[in-house]
Write a structure and sequence with these properties.
about 210 residues; 12 strands; Protein Transport Mog1p, Chain A; two-stranded antiparallel ribbon; 4 helices; globular
Amino acid sequence: MTEQNLAPSPEPTGFNLVLPPGWGKIDLHDEVVNDSILNLVDSSIGQLPENIPRDDVSKVRMELFRELRKAARKASRANGMMLYLPVERVHGSVVPASFVVSEPITATGAGFTSNQVLNGVAAERGESETVTVDGVTGTRIERIVPPTERSEFEFPSRRVEYIIPLPGSPLPSWLAITFSTVGDGNPESEYSAALVDLFDAVMMTFRWSYE
């Protein structure tokens, strides 16, 4: 299952990853984003109990579409091309987490190596470590981000970012995959840590595709 075209051969043409149960994806490109959201809404609504009144189902459907459209706009403004998020409720609540895969970022300046760029980004954003994702050496960055003045959340978020060089690219280029969660309101809690572990497990399933 190819998630998104990236570049012609010999660069990767896309990527694959395995989502946790209850998660879905939204393609953020303008020409398909609404259809992508509607597919996710239909899948989620299809899991509701059959005895729910039709009017209530319609209300849930409209509200879910609005929520997903809002999340998609926010991710798109952040240069995202794919948004992944949970759509099934657990004990009555949606898991407060998501991650975004950015459009590939290509270096425009001359004289910078991939390692120099990765090290520079890591130094600015938080605690970092070297990781290997499908045979490619990248950087994993983790940090706590306080809420902004206009944020709908009053709690800080825990963020993890994987920055992975695109293999075979003629110019230094990277894919950024950014995870964010407010957890249970405490970014240092066991629940928040468990959600981070879940994202790290997803990233271990990441594979480049060349078809």
